[in-house]
């Protein structure tokens, strides 16, 4: 499954690899990888495969959710696809509570004690994922874990999840993506080495090239 999803991401250019010049993230940090999983929703075949993979992952992990949650905004459509396939209620977690009306952080109905799987499109540092997980827990949900399409596999993310005590899984990861890219001849051995050094310490990699740390 990891290679299949990695192929989909590369076919759609959802995960693009570029070294010269590198991509600039919103934070100002330079990176050889840019991930835009939103492109998946525009491909019926790809979004169907991803949704089926999420269901298989949830079942394999042994999670038995009462509710499927999505992170705003990129996790929302995938949560909807998964909830539909599993015939379960769906909610989504805002990035911040509304400043009007009911001032909701969670949209949809979440009853206290309901078991929740949170769908995320991407895990980078893990910060936003942990914030959404906290929103579910504070809202009375029993969070089983987070399921993401892709993770960069950054050490800081694992530290975030360990510190928060939140379980997580992903459909594909950095090593699978690199393996598929190498199979296709997308990257040379030297380029693979550069990207691997970025993955080990993205802040230092960025600073060396004049970006933010």
Structure description:
- With 213 residues, this protein is of the alpha/beta class.
- It has one domain: Rossmann fold, CATH 3.40.50.
- It is built from eight helices and ten strands.
- The protein has a six-stranded mixed β-sheet with strand order 7-6-5-8-9-10.
- Strand 5, helix 3 and strand 6 form a beta-alpha-beta unit.
- Helix 1 crosses helix 6, helix 2 crosses helix 3 and helix 7 packs across helix 8.
- 38% of the residues are buried.
Give the arrangement of secondary structure elements:
Blueprint lengths: L1 H10 L3 E3 L5 E2 L5 E2 L1 E3 L8 H18 L5 E5 L4 H11 L3 E4 L12 E2 L7 E9 L3 H12 L3 E10 L3 H10 L3 E6 H11 L4 H12 L1 H7 L5
Parallel strand pairs: 5-6, 5-8, 8-9, 9-10
Antiparallel strand pairs: 1-4, 2-3, 6-7
Helix pairs in contact: 1-6, 2-3, 7-8
Supply the CATH architecture.
3-Layer(aba) Sandwich
Query: How many independent structural domains?
Result: 1
Element pattern in H and E: HEEEEHEHEEEHEHEHHH
Mean pLDDT: 93
User: What gyration radius follows from the Cα positions, in whole Å?
Assistant: 17 Å
How are the strands of the largest sheet arranged?
Answer: 7-6-5-8-9-10
Weakly predicted, low-confidence segments: none
State the CATH class. Alpha Beta
Number of beta-strand segments: 10
Question: Which percent bin holds the helix content?
Answer: 40-55%
Straight-line N-to-C gap = 33 Å
Biggest sheet features: 6 strands, mixed
What is the name of the CATH topology? Rossmann fold
Q: Output the structural class.
A: alpha/beta
Supply the number of helical segments.
8
């Amino acid at each position: 499954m990891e290679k299949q999803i990695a192929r989909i991401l590369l076919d759609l250019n959802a995960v693009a690899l570029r070294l010269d010049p590198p991509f600039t993230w919103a934070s100002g940090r330079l990176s050889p990888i840019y991930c835009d999983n939103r492109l998946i929703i525009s491909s019926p075949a790809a979004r169907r495969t991803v949704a089926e993979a999420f269901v298989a992952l949830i079942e394999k992990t042994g999670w038995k959710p009462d509710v499927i949650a999505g992170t705003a905004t990129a996790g929302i459509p995938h949560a909807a696809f998964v909830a539909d396939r599993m015939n379960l209620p769906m909610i989504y977690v805002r990035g911040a509570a509304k400043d009007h009306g009911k001032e909701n952080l969670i949209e949809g109905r979440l009853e206290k004690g309901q078991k929740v799987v949170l769908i995320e499109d991407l895990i980078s540092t893990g910060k936003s994922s942990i914030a959404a997980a906290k929103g579910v827990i504070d809202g009375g949900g029993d969070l089983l874990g987070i399921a993401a399409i892709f993770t960069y596999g950054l050490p800081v993310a694992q530290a975030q999840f360990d510190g928060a005590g939140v379980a997580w899984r992903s459909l594909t990861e950095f090593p699978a993506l690199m393996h598929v890219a190498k199979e296709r001849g997308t990257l040379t051995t030297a380029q693979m080495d550069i990207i691997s050094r970025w993955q080990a310490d993205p802040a230092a990699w960025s600073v060396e090239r004049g970006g933010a740390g």
